[in-house]
Write the structure tokens for this entry.
Amino acid sequence: RSNGYVQLQVRDNGPGLPQVRPAWLEGPIGVAHTEARLEKLYGTAQRFQLRNEGGLVAELTFPFQVASLP
């Protein structure tokens, strides 16, 4: 948690993503769905990024919120 945001980063040491974004990322359960869901929940206050950096790095930033109990 930093400056009111949650920052998550997951990385691996595999080959990363190809230069051209593969079609399997765009399906209803792929990355495009995750991006759309985050946009709906947090608007421009979120960031989701995939990049090659010695393997694949997935980075997600969104506002920190305390859950309200029922």
